[in-house]
Amino acid sequence: MRFTSHQISIAVIAAASASIFTATTVAAAPLETWDAVAACESSGDWSAVSPSGYRGGLQFSQSTWQEFGGTQYAPTADKATKEQQIIIAEKVLQDQGPGAWPVCSVKAGLAGSIATAPSEEEVPRASSTQTAAPAIVQRAQVPFATYKVQPGDTWNSIAMQLHIDGGAQQLKDSNRALLGDGVDAPPVGVRLSVGAVDIDTAPHAANEKPVTPQVEVEVAPSEEAKATAPLDQTQVTTSYRAPGSMWSSGYHTGVDFAAPNGTPVKAISSGEVIRAGSGGSYGNEVIVRHADGHYSQYAHLSQIAVQEGQEVSGGFQIGLSGSTGNSSGPHLHFEVRTTPDYGSDIDPTAYLGSLGVTI
Q1: 86, 279, 286, 351: which could join 336 in a potential S-S bond, CB 3.0 to 4.6 Å?
Q2: Helix or strand or coil: residue 182?
Q3: Which helix (H) or strand (E) holds 256?
Q4: Interacting residues of 130 by C-beta distance below 8 A, sequence separation 6+
Q5: What is the DSSP string of 45-110?
Q6: Whether the Cβ atoms of residue 298 and residue 265 lie closer than 8 Å to each other
Q7: Cβ atoms of 217 and 199 closer than 8 Å
Q8: 99 Cβ contact list (under 8 Å, min separation 6)
Q9: Of 102, 103, 100, the residue nearest 91 (C-alpha)
Q10: What is the DSSP letter of 355?
Q11: What Å distances lie between residue 329 and 231, 251, 302, CA to CA?
């Protein structure tokens, strides 16, 4: 589930002879159509949890699940039954239309399955020699999206497909924190940040292709969810990849910030807490999964103020700095990873810079 009602509006232009149609209430979709949407969104796994934090067969964001009453059935969508998820999906469909699933609604035929056919009086019959009227045009401006690299893709081909301002170089720059410098070709299977994208959400015939390639749409952060540094004061005491035998990897996998015991620690951007507790040598740690597929870690905390499964926004206090675990004194150890686990670290300062946060 990719959008909430206040985050996106979809322009719908109907072009058909000289007739003007009156908008009607969206009808319920058949069960088989919801199965098709789920097959596209989650491979039909009704208990799925995506790396971006979307849940259930229809991939609800937690905020949408709560907004439309899903918590009356289960705390999160992946804990609800298929039938309960479809009940909530019908409510979302009534409120937002098929554009709530901008890619999979097209593939599954969701828009066509709920369309109310106009009466014969409203639409004159077209003769066999007449050119068919243009299909409904539905476009959605998506502020934040990612693209999964396919075999044969190049930086240029992706930039051209998605009409990225700045072309291949801008695409490389946007993903430098993820891939580093000097990557000749984007690795197959990696999900690249592609920024703002215009999504084609119109229904298409079986022999037609959508205007937009397959992209994974991410929820735009709200004002209070903008990126921020993990501390109000960010004095670096140990930089990323500083060498040293005291670390099992042979280098420092994050960045250390000076922080007296009890300093408030904040989530750098919105996401879901996936770990909150003891992290071995990291002491008390919190790990947050963000919508772009990255994970931020906050370690050696004296206190933890969140719990696993909790949704947080950028700037939300997740705990207090300390010196728990393998630590020589109070500070904050901060990492950014491509998976939740040790060994997938990337440069946290560069990543924050990609979010507009300067350290």
Answers
A1: 351
A2: coil
A3: strand 255-258
A4: none
A5: -TT-B-TTS-BTTTTB-HHHHHHTTGGGT-SSGGGS-HHHHHHHHHHHHHHH-GGGSTTHHHHHTH
A6: yes
A7: yes
A8: 3, 8, 10, 105, 138, 140, 201
A9: 100
A10: T
A11: 17, 19, 11
Nearest in space to 154 (alpha carbons), one of 145, 167, 166: 167
Q: How far apart are CA 113 and CA 115, in angstroms?
A: 6
Closest CA to 276 of 290, 266, 287: 287
Tokens of 235: 């004095």
Q: CA distances (Å), 89 to each of 28, 112, 122, 159, 162, in order?
A: 10, 16, 30, 33, 29
Distances (CA, A) of 104 to 142, 293, 351: 15, 20, 30
CB atoms within 10 A of CB 184: 6
Q: Are strands 264-266 and 311-312 parallel, antiparallel or unpaired?
A: unpaired
State the 10-residue block means of pLDDT for the chain, 359 residues long.
Answer: 34 30 52 89 86 81 87 91 92 82 78 49 44 42 62 84 79 73 78 61 43 44 66 94 85 95 93 92 94 93 89 89 93 95 92 90
Whether the pTM exceeds 0.70: the reply is no
